[in-house]
DNA sequence: GTCTATATTTCGATAGAC
DNA sequence: GTCTATCGAAATATAGAC
C-alpha cells in the first residue's frame, strides 16, 4: 500500500487544504477586524464568520496578531499594484486620473481592507511601521519625483507633490473608510451611478486644482 | 455647628470636584480610545493615564460605553462650531477657505478626537448614528443649498456640492487620522511651516478645483 | 487536519472600608 | 468622594482525543 506518486510541481493535497482554509479565514478576519477593530474582534467571531471551530484558527495562524498582520499586508499589496496605473501615460491628467480611478475602484471593492489599514495607521502602525519606512516611503519619493518633472515641464501648476498624494489618498479612501457616514447621508448605499459621479468629481476637482485640465 | 451659607449661583465644592475629575478622565479617555480603539482600550489604561484608581472611573461614568460616547460627542460639537466659519463671507473662496482653515486647525489641535470619530464611523457608528441622521444631515443639506446658490450665481463651477464637502472632510481629517503615516514619511512631526503649507495646498487645490480662484 | 473541553489571563464592574 | 480587594464574565490559547 504505497502512496501514489505525485507531481512535485503541483501542490500537495495538504497544501491545497491549507491555502483554501487560510483564504477563508483571511476573508472572515478582514471583515471582522474592519467591523470591530483589533481589540474588538474576537477569534470566536472570526471563526463563526468562517464557519470553522475556533481552535482551527490557531492551527493556521499562531496568534490573533499574526492573522491581523496578514490582513493589513493584503490591502497594502493591492494598493501597490494599483499604483502602477500612474505610469499609464506621460500626460499628468491621464496618469494621475488613472491612479485616482484605480484607488476609487479599490475603495468600492475592498472597503474592509481599507478600514483595517486606517485602523492600523490611526493606532500608530504597530504592525506595519517597517512598511511605511521602506516600501511606502520609496514609492512616495518616486512619485514625487515624477510629479516634480511634470511641474518642471509646465504641464501642471507648481503645487507640493507630497500634499497632492495625501489628498488623493484621503479623498479616495474616504469613500471606503467613511462609507457608512456617506451611505447615511445618501439615505442608502451608493449606486453604480453614484460611484461614477463620485469618481468623476474627485478626478475633476483634483486635476483642475493642479492645472492638469482647464 | 451649622454649615456655612453658600451662594447658590456658584457651583458647590462637590460639583467643582466632579467637573474637574470628569474633564481629567475625558482627556485621558480621548487619548486612550484614539490609540487603541474602543475594544482595545481598557479602563485600567485610562485610569493610569488620568492618575486615578480604576474604581473612580466607574464612579464618574457608569460604563465604558458612557465614557466613550462623551468623547465622540465632544469632537462632533467642536466641528459643528467650526462649521460657522463657512458663513464668514458671501465670497465662496473666503467662506469655503475659512472652513478649510478651521478644519485643518482642529486636525492639529484635536487629532485624538478626530481619530475616535473615525473609529466610530468606520465601525458603523453604533453610538452616534442618530447624530448622523439628524444634526449632520441637516447641516450638510444646508451647506449644499449654499454651494448650489454659488453655482447658480456663476461664482464657482457646477460641481456636485455633496462631494465637495466629502473632499473637504476627507483631506482635512486625513492630517489628523493618518498623522502617524504623514509624520513617518516626513521623518518627523509636522512643523508650524509644514502645517501652514499643508493648509495652503489643500485650500489652493480645492478652491481652484471648483473654480473659486483662478 | 479537525474539534471538544479546558487552562490561563484579563477585563469590566462592584462591594465595602475609610 | 477615594481606594483596595475581588467577583464574574469573556477572551486567547492549548491539550489531547479522534
Characterize this entry briefly.
The structure is a homodimer of 214-residue chains. Chain A is mainly α and 214 residues long.
Helix content of chain A: over 70%
Taking Cα atoms only, what radius of gyration of chain A do you get, to the nearest Å?
A: 21 Å
The 3D shape of chain A can be described as globular
Distance between the termini of chain A: 76 Å
Commentary on this structure:
The structure is a homodimer of 214-residue chains. Chain A has 10 helices and no strands. The first copy, chain A, has 214 residues and is mainly α. Chain A has one domain: Tetracycline Repressor, domain 2 (Orthogonal Bundle), CATH 1.10.357.10. In chain A, helix 5 runs antiparallel to helix 10 (192-209). The longest helix of chain A has 28 residues, at 13-40. The model of chain A has no long low-confidence stretch (mean pLDDT 93). Chain A binds a DNA duplex (18 and 18 nucleotides) through helix 1 and helix 3.
Amino acid at each position: 500500500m504505497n502512496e501514489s506518486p505525485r507531481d512535485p510541481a503541483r501542490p500537495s493535497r495538504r497544501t491545497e487544504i491549507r491555502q483554501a482554509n487560510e483564504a477563508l479565514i483571511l476573508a472572515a478576519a478582514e471583515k471582522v477586524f474592519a467591523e470591530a477593530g483589533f481589540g474588538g474582534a474576537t477569534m470566536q467571531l472570526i471563526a463563526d464568520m468562517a464557519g470553522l471551530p475556533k481552535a482551527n484558527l490557531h492551527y493556521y495562524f499562531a496568534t490573533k496578531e499574526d492573522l491581523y498582520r496578514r490582513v493589513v499586508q493584503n490591502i497594502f499589496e493591492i494598493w501597490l499594484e494599483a499604483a502602477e496605473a500612474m505610469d499609464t501615460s506621460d500626460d499628468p491628467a491621464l496618469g494621475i486620473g488613472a491612479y485616482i480611478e484605480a484607488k476609487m475602484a479599490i475603495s468600492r471593492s475592498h472597503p474592509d481592507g481599507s478600514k483595517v489599514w486606517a485602523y492600523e495607521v490611526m493606532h500608530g502602525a504597530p504592525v506595519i511601521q517597517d512598511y511605511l519606512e521602506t516600501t511606502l516611503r520609496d514609492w512616495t519619493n518616486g512619485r514625487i519625483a515624477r510629479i516634480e518633472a511634470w511641474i518642471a515641464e509646465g504641464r501642471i501648476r507648481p503645487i507640493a507633490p507630497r500634499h497632492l498624494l495625501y489628498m488623493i489618498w484621503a479623498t479616495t479612501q474616504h469613500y471606503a473608510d467613511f462609507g457608512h457616514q456617506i451611505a447615511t447621508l445618501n439615505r442608502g448605499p451608493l449606486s453604480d451611478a453614484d460611484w461614477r459621479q463620485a469618481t468623476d468629481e474627485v478626478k475633476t476637482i483634483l486635476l483642475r486644482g493642479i492645472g492638469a485640465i482647464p
